[in-house]
## 1
Amino acid sequence: MSSIDHDSIRHTAPPGFDQYREDISRGQIETVEYFSTTVGSKRKAMIYIPPGYSEDQRYNVLYLLHGIGGDEAEWYNHAGPQVILDNLYAERKLAPMIVVLPNGRAMANDRAEGNLFDANKLKAFEDFESDLLHDLIPYMESNYSVLIGRENRALAGLSMGGGQSLNIGLGNLDRFAWIGGFSSAPNTKEPELLVPNPEEASAKLRLLWLSCGLLDNLKYVSDRTHAYLELNNVPHIWYEESGGHDWPVWKNDLYHFSQLIFR
C-alpha cells in the first residue's frame, strides 16, 4: 500500500472546499440508464465527467454509493460532489477520474419509499454486488473511455453504502484496489468475514479507508473493523472526525478520500 501523509487528513476540509467557484473549469453530471441482468430491467446512475474529459484519454473510475434512505441522486442532492471535485481539479489535487453514483438498491422498484427496512429492500442492497460487477461496470467500460484494471477502480460509500463498499470491495480484491467506508452501517460484515485473509488483503489493497464521526451512534461498526485490521496488521487509514451521521462528515470524507486514490 502506498505511503500516506496521515497529518493531511487529521483536519476538516478547508473553508470553501464545497463552494461553487466562478473562475474554474467544470465537469459534467449526467444521468444514464443501463440494463441490469441482475434485476431484469433498466436502472439509472448519475455520472460525473471531469473537466477536460477526452475520449483520447482513459480514466480511473470511483463508484460512490449512497445510504439506505437515498438513491442515485442522493450524493448530488445533498453534497454537490461535482463542486467538491471541480475545486480539487482546479487545485491539481486529483488524479483523473470518472465518478459513478449508482442506485445501490438492486430491485425493480428501487426508489427510497415505504419501509426502507423491509427484508426485500435490504436484500436488494446485497444483490447490488451482482448488479455492480456484472451490469454497471461492464456498461461503463463499454460506453466511457475508462481504464479497466483493478488499480483503476475504487469503491466507497456512506452508511449503508459504506457497508456495501467494504463487503463488495474486500470480497472482490481482484476488481478493486481502493476501498472506503464512510460511517459504515450495520450491514457491514463481521471483520473476520470481511477480511478472512489479512495477508492477501494487505498485499492487494492500495488504500483501505475507514472513517466515522465521533458522535455517530453507528461508530461501533467502524470501531470493530478498525480494531480487527489493526490486530491483523492490515494497513488502513482510520479517521475519526467531529460530527455525527450526517452530510458534513461525508463531504469531508469525499474531499480527503478522493485525493488519495489512483496515486
Note: The helical segments are 74-79, 81-90, 119-143, 160-171, 191-194, 198-204, 219-231, 247-260.
## 2
Amino acid sequence: MTSDIHTELLTLDSHIDIPWPDRGDFATGSPLRQVDLPKLREGGLKAVCLAAYIPQTRRDDASREAAWERVQAMLGVINGLQDDRVAVCRRVEAVRGAVAEGKVAVIPAVENAHALGGDLTRVDRLAALGVRYMTLTHNGHNDLADAAIPLAALGDETTLHGGLSALGRQVVARMNAHGILVDVSHAAKSTMMQAAEHSTHPIVASHSCARALCDHPRNLDDEQLLRLRDSGGVIQITAMSSFLKPSAEGRASVRDLARHVRYVAERIGIVHVGVSSDFDGGGQIEGWANAAESMRVTEALLAEGFSETELRAIWGGNFLRVLQQAEPR
C-alpha cells in the first residue's frame, strides 16, 4: 500500500547539492553519489532542486570573482543534464509536464549569495540560467547578510550587518522581480526576519528544521516559523541528523524527520511544511541514506498519521505552490 501511495505522489526534494568538480556520472550513477538518475528512479523521486553550492570565502575582490566563476560553471552542469529522461525546468507548469511524461524534473538553485561576487546585476544572469531560489548565506557572513553560523577562520564576529546589508535588501528586491525565491536556510535570525519583511514573495527555508525540537543555530525557532507562515512560505525539514536531534542522542532517523514535520504542521499549518534531503551536501539519516530510499520517508510520514492528501502537500505540493506564486507574470 505504501508503495502505491508513494508512486502516485509528485515527490520533490527541495535541496540537493551537486558534487564538485563534476564527474559526469549523474546519468550513469555512482556509489560516490547519494543522488543520481538511477537512484532517483529507484526511490520514486520525481523532482529535485539541484543547488550550486558556493563555500563562503573572504570578502575580497579575488574571492568574489572566483565565487562568480564557480557558480556559472556549476549552473552550466545543472542545465546540461537536460536530455530525453531529465527536464531542467524554470516554471512549475514545466515541472508538472515533465513528471507527467515520466521525466525527472530538475530545478536549478544557488546556495550562498556570495556567488554574486557583490554585484547586484548578476541576479539577472542567475535568472537567465534558470535559478529559482538562492540562499542569502551559507556558513559565514557575506556582503549581503549575516549567517546563522559565523566563521572565525574568516574573522567573523557575531554580526556584521545586523541582518541584511543595504546590498542585501537590493538583492532581495531583484530576486523578487525575477521570481527567484529568497531562501533563509543558513541565515541569521535577524537576516531571516528582515528578509521576510522586505520580500514581496513568500520566503522559504529549503533545508532547515524546528529549533523547538533541536536547539541548533541552523534551525528556525517558533517566532521565525510564525513569520515564515505570515509570508506565505514553507520550511523544508531536512535529513541532517544534527538538525533533527542532539548528537549526544545518537543518529536521527526518518521518524525524527516526520516528528519535525508534525511539529511544524501543528504550529503553523500543513501548507507551510515540506521535506528535503541535503544529499551530497552532508544530509543522511537512518532510513534515508540516498535518493533510492525515499519511500522510507513516505512510510514514516504515514506512521506519523499524515493522510494521503497531506502527503501530497508535504512531498512537493507546498513548495511548488510557493514557486508558482513567485513566477513573473
Note: The mean pLDDT is 98.
## 3
Amino acid sequence: MTVADLAQNIGRELPYLRRYARALTGSQRAGDNYAAATLEAILTDRSVLDGEDDLRIALFKTFHVIWQSSGQPVEDADMTTRERKAQSHLRGLTPNSREALLLRTIEELRSDQIARVMQIETAEADELVQIALNEMGQALRGKVMVIEDEMIIAMDLKGIVQAMGHDVTGVARTHTAAIELAGKHRPDLILADIQLADGSSGVDAVNELLASMGDIPVIFITAFPERLLTGDRPEPAFLISKPYSEEQVRSAVSQAMFFASTEGLTA
C-alpha cells in the first residue's frame, strides 16, 4: 500500500478513532491528542500496523498501545471540579473494562475484534464488557432532558434512560421548547438530536443552555457523526450514531454522567 493510499484509508477511520478517544477521556482536547499521537506513531513507523489485515483494528490497536504505555493520564490543569471527581471515580473501576465497553457499544466491534485491539483473549473481552456494564450501571443517578423531534425516538430514549434508574425531565422538539424545559427543570444530562422539528439546531440549543447553566454533560445523537468529528472546531465528547442500539445509549449515558462535556459547539 502506498503512503497516499494509507493516508486516505486512515482518513476514513479517523473520525471514529476520535469519537472513541473522546468518550474514553471525556473531552475533545484529550481525545484528539491521543488520536494525534496514534497517527504520529504510524507515520514514524508503519510496522506498527503489521500483523493486521483490518486497518481499523490496526489503528485502534496502535491507539491502545499508546494509551496503555502512557498510564492513561487524562487529567490536566483545565479540568473542572466535576471532571476531577469523575476521573477519581473512574480510577476505581476494573482496569480495561471501560475500554472494552466503549469498543463494543460505541464502535460496535465484535468480541474477537476487541480482543485483538486490546491484545487479550476473547473470553476476557466479554468479561470486561459485562463488568463495565455492572459497575457503571450502579454508579450515578440523575435528571435527563431529551431534545428530539421524532416522538418515537424520543419515547424510546426516554424508556431506556428511565430503565437505567434516571429521571427524565421531559422531551423538547424545538430550540425554544428546550430552553423553556431546562428553565423549569435543570438537567444533569442532555440527550440531543442535531436537527429539530422547526428546522432549528439542537447544537444551538445546547450551546445556549450551557452558556446559561454551565457544567452539564451532553450526548449528541445524529445520523451523520462524521460531521461533528472533524477536529477543526470544538465538538462533542459524546456522540451516538443513528440508528442506535439500547446498549449504545446505556453506555453513552453512563459515560457522560462521569464527565462534563461543556465545550462550546457550532452548527
Note: The two ends are 36 Å apart (CA to CA).
